[in-house]
Amino acid sequence: AHVSMGMGNSFGRVFRVSTWGESHGSGVGVTVDGVPPRMKITREEIQRELDRRRPGQSRIVTPRNEPDAAEILSGVVDDVTMGTPIGILVRNKDQRSGDYDTNAVSYRPSHADATYDAKYGIRAVAGGGRSSARETIGRVAAGAIAKKLLTEYSGVEIVGYVHRVGSVAAQDVNVDTISLESVESNIMRAPNEASATAMIAKVDEIRKTGNSIGGVVEVVVRNVPAGLGSPVFDKLEADLAKACMSLPASKGFEIGSGFDGTYLTGFEHNDIFVIDEDGHTRTATNRSGGIQGGISNGENIVLRVAFKPTSTIGRLQQTVTRDGQPSELRGKGRHDPCVLPRAVPMVEAMVALVLADHLLMHLAQCSVMPLDSETAPNPLGPKARAGTIRSARQSV
């Protein structure tokens, strides 16, 4: 019989992750199963991603000071995966549980306090337990492994950035050329310096009042093979939506033209097919966002995730106590005035986990029987990137 971690703590089918730990416990971590053997992965590659999501990076995120140092417990020997479960632990170092003493009595508005109590009859008051964004450490660590697999296989590039803060939207973004280096060059993780300046000013304005602000993260994925995803319930965009909407504070998801596409007619919205210089079937536009019929078509996958303003704020608000009495509460502790800069690597990680899972499922089902070149369809999507496993195989 198949045994997995308790309800709601595991994700994926072939490339499967299970996260564990609480914000103010001894540590948090992840178990990653289904990783192909013989793949090189170093602790430094995992740590690089964790450093992007760690607290205390700048004045516009939480000042909690955590090194978030990854410890690989199993599944990797001499920087090579063994094909067995990979265990990763990050120890908590800077907990201040006393900041949450009033939360044991009063519920924080729009937080998970009341709903966790309603479901379990008990909750981890300090730090919010499993509802804390600290849980995402395991996702980001697992995402680093998934990114490495995708890069090795077909040169996949996953680049996320802050698309909008409140009403301040990024300008002059080219999804074909936007780079990790340009995003990481500013504390906002905006796509360019001009956009970053305007966004940072907005966050500073809000945080100085003890308030918080939300916005949108956009992610572009390049060099995805055509064919990932399955019909009906396992459509690629459906799994991407679930993955991204499982992140703390996420409130909306769209892909390609998204909700704006509803303003167009079919003739205006359709991505017409063309043949590129390599003789491959491509689309002239990409309003589909790289996915058609629930299956990747080889074009860039472009998606957006909306995040609400952080729930815990330093302003006095009306609430009720655990026993149902009217109360007032001012949030204490160290919290992000804007979750977006640290949400970028989180969204990237969830996208990578979905794509790695679908890649392994696709190869398992569709690469067993040989494809007759005389009856095969013209290749869909761009030519495989040189130097990748996909290019060597020329089978996807």
- The total count of helices amounts to 9
Give the N-terminus to C-terminus distance in angstroms. 33 Å
Strand order of the largest sheet: 1-2-3-7-4
Q: Quick one: biggest sheet?
A: 5 strands, antiparallel
Shape: globular
Describe this structure as you would to a colleague:
The chain is an alpha+beta fold. The protein has nine helices and 18 strands. Strands 1-2-3-7-4 form a five-stranded antiparallel sheet, with helices on one face. It has a five-stranded antiparallel sheet with strand order 9-8-10-16-11. The protein has a two-stranded antiparallel ribbon with strand order 5-6. Helix 1 crosses helix 3 and helix 3 crosses helix 8 (340-366).
How are the elements arranged and paired?
Blueprint: E1 10-11, E2 16-21, E3 27-33, H1 43-53, E4 70-74, E5 76-77, E6 80-81, E7 86-91, H2 113-120, H3 136-154, E8 157-165, E9 168-169, H4 180-183, H5 193-207, E10 215-222, H6 236-245, E11 250-255, H7 266-269, E12 273-275, E13 281-283, E14 291-292, E15 295-296, E16 301-307, E17 316-320, E18 326-330, H8 340-366, H9 389-393
Helix pairs in contact: 1-3, 1-8, 3-8, 6-8
What are the salient characteristics of this protein?
396 residues; 9 helices; 26% helix; alpha+beta; globular; 5-stranded antiparallel beta sheet
